[in-house]
Amino acid sequence: EPMRKRAKVDSNQAEIVEAMRKAGWQVVSLAALGGGVPDLLCAKGLAVKLIEVKSATGHLTPWQVRFHRGWPVQVVRTISEALEL
C-alpha cells in the first residue's frame, strides 16, 4: 500500500460513535489504519460489526471496495442506519 496522508474522518462519525455507545455498543476507531480497513469495530454481547462511516454523498475508495469484498463491512451514513444494525 502506498504511503498516504492522515486518515480523513467523516464529519458524522463522532455522532454515530456517541449514539452507538449510548445504545450499549463498545466502539473502537480503526480509521487510522488505512488500506481500506473500515472506520469502526463495534461489539455488543456476541455481536461484532465492522462499520464504514460515509457522509451523505461519500463514496468508497478503491481500497475500501477491495477490503469489503473479503469482510462483512456495513456502510452507514446516519445514526439511525447505525442503530438498525
Structure report:
- The protein is of the alpha+beta class.
- It has 3 helices and 4 strands, in the order αβββαβα.
- The protein has helices at residues 13-22, 62-70, 79-84, and strands spanning 26-29, 40-44, 47-53, 73-76.
- A 4-stranded mixed sheet has the order 1-2-3-4.
Write the layout of secondary structure elements.
Blueprint: H1 13-22, E1 26-29, E2 40-44, E3 47-53, H2 62-70, E4 73-76, H3 79-84
Parallel strand pairs: 3-4
Antiparallel strand pairs: 1-2, 2-3
From the spread of the alpha carbons, the general shape counts as globular
- How many helices? The count is 3
Low-confidence spans: 1-5
**What Rg is obtained from the alpha carbons, in whole angstroms?**
12 Å
Strand content: 15-25%
DSSP strand tally:
4
- Assign a percent range to the helix content: 25-40%
pLDDT averaged over residues: 91
* Helix and strand sequence: HEEEHEH
Intertermini distance: 30 Å
Strand order of the largest sheet: 1-2-3-4
How is the biggest beta sheet arranged? 4 strands, mixed
> Which structural class best describes the helix and strand composition?
alpha+beta
